[in-house]
Amino acid sequence: MMETPLGRVRGLGSAHHGGEDWWAMRVNSVALLGLSVWLIASLLRLPDLSQVTVAEWLRQPLSAVPMLLLLGTVFWHAKHGLREVIDDYAHDEGWRAFWLMALTFACWLGGGFAAFSVLKIAFSVGSAA
Amino acid sequence: MHRNPSRPMSPHLTIWKWGPHMLVSILHRITGAGLALVGGAVLIWWLAAAAGSAESYTTFMGWARGRIGLVFAIGLTWAFFQHALSGVRHLVMDIGAGFELKTNKGWSLATTLGALVLTAGFWVYLLFGRGA
User: Could you tell me which CATH number the domain at A5-123 has?
Assistant: First the structure.
């Protein structure tokens, strides 16, 4: 039976997930590149980094929405990037499962906390941030 | 032993030497792990402090403006630019381009130099450019 190189790696690899994770990481990386350039440019354009200035900036929908997208993208990226490191260096199956689980929990906890902070600023009323 | 210099050297267990491509490869992993662990923590702390009380933000900015904070901040911006540039290099290589020896060496060097230039430019602008 004929098999393409892509067909051969599907479901394989050290993560046992084959090509899907690989492609998702490329899509994620392109998105993250754009979003991080946006964040850096936005921060450099702020007159200062005081709490009032940052809160006023984050309250705007055109800041809060990209920031939330950035948080989802960056913690997804961190999760999958560190997963590659764990897959490479954690040789014991038990420890590998432990570190992957800890990584998943940490990324959802951190990402959730950061996203909640953005929403809290975005939905707060007035300038008393 | 005659060696054709236009051919790649096969890395053997003990016979190999450092090249820019190896440096960029391991830097991508180190900066990626650093950004995920340290950068992620700082990002959460900054947003949580901004959403919290004036006191919590003052505490964050006190650390960020201190000497340790400056070392961390400069390290993180360099790690970001290095990881971003070598990430773009990976995206180009993923489409099958840039594997010629000279091209590969050139872009490897370009990512390390580019990251240093962008980090310096970022901090010069932040500290002196807008008078913050």
Answer: 1.20.1300.10
